[in-house]
Amino acid sequence: MELRDPEASRGFLVSKRATDVALSSVLAIIAAPIVLVAVLGLRRRKSQVFCSEQRCGQAGKLFRMIRLNVDRSEDAVRTRFEQALITLSLTELPQLWNVLRGDMSLVGPRPDLPERVGRYTEWEQERLRVKPGMTGLAQVHGLRDHNTSEERTRFDLQYMLNPSAVADVSILLQTLWTLSGRLPPFSKRILAGRDVNRRHGFDDINSQFLEDTLRDAHRSQSSAD
Fold first, then answer.
1. Contact, 45 vs 78, CB < 8 A?
2. Is 50 helix (H, G, I), strand (E, B) or coil?
3. pLDDT surpasses 70 at 94
4. Burial classification of residue 199, based on how many CB atoms lie within 10 Å of its CB (0-12 exposed, 13-18 middle, 19 or more buried)
5. Which of 67, 42, 38 is nearest to 54 (CA)?
6. What pLDDT score does 184 carry?
7. Parallel, antiparallel, or unpaired for β 62-68 and 105-107?
8. How far apart are CA 120 and CA 22, in angstroms?
9. CA distance 225 to 223
10. Pick the residue with more confidence: 207 or 7?
11. What is the DSSP string of 48-90?
């Protein structure tokens, strides 16, 4: 395998930024009702519905990445509503603001925590040459934060070595396809009435609210698509 610096023309970078601004603006309008439902659902249990995390962007520049305030740790106790937000990646929708600000792009390597970047090898540091993204080639191949930086870097560098508008569109479509595939099985689990909330001590009123709110979110997303 031959390693070389990522090649992207000035024209491509300008058009990519213009596309990011235009598309993220449209997506933000479409996502607004979904985020509103999520905020109302989280507000019942939390005073802070948004959170920000320090991440490393292009050239290692630090920025605050925004997401919905849902505990993503493996041992966390979550409601079904919160689990739905994670499963459908709705917790990441506020990052459209990061795209509009210029901290992120719609497509690119996922931004890492500073402490993780501090342990990058010289090879892995190549990920920092481009702007991080909401989704990327590693994500459509099923890699997430729990995977090693080396595993994700293999896909990220593959994307960076051949930057193109076609590649960006392909990754965005694959991401939408992957998320749409999570809807039917998750909806069946929710509507089947599995009493997960009772096992964690939530009352019947909260359980019913979460189910109704989730159904509203599904209807909003379906109409938006």
1. no
2. strand
3. yes
4. exposed
5. 67
6. 62
7. unpaired
8. 33
9. 5
10. 7
11. --EEEEEEE-GGG-EEEEEEE----STT----HHHHHHHHTTG
